[in-house]
Amino acid sequence: MFFIIYIIFILKEDILLLNCLKKRFLKDIITLFPEIENQEKAEYKSILASVRIEEPKNREFGDLTTNAAMVLASKIRKKPSDLATLIKDEILGRYEEIKEINIAGPGFLNIKLKDSFLIEKILEVFKQHDSYGSNDTAKGTKIQIEYVSSNPTGNLHIGHGRWGVMGDILSNIYSLNGFDVCREYYVNDYGTQAKIFAECVRSVYLERFDIKYPYPEEGYPRETVSKIADILFNKFSDSFIKDKTTLEFDEISFSRNAIRIMVSLITDTLKSIGVEFDVWFFESSLYGEGSFDATLDFLKERNLTYDEEEALWFKSTDFGDDKDRVIIRKDGNPTYFASDIMYLINKKERGFEYLLYILGADHHGYISRLKAIASSIGMDKDKVSIIIGQLVRIIEGREVQKMSRRKGKGFTLDDLVSEVGRDAVRYFFSMNSFDTHLDFDISLAKKKSNQNPVFYVQYAFARIGSIIRKTNENRPVNLDADFVSGMEDYDSQVFGNFLLSIEKNDFKNPSERNLAWTILLFPDTVRDACRSNAPYFVNQYLYRLASEFHYFYKHNKIITKDKINIKRLLLALAARLVLKKGLDILGVSAPERM
RNA sequence: GCGCUUGUAGCUCAGCUGGAUAGAGCUACGGACUUCUAAUCCGUAGGCCGGGGGUUCGAAUCCCUCCAAGCGCGCCA
Question: How far does CA A61 lie from the centroid of its chain?
Answer without folding.
Answer: 32
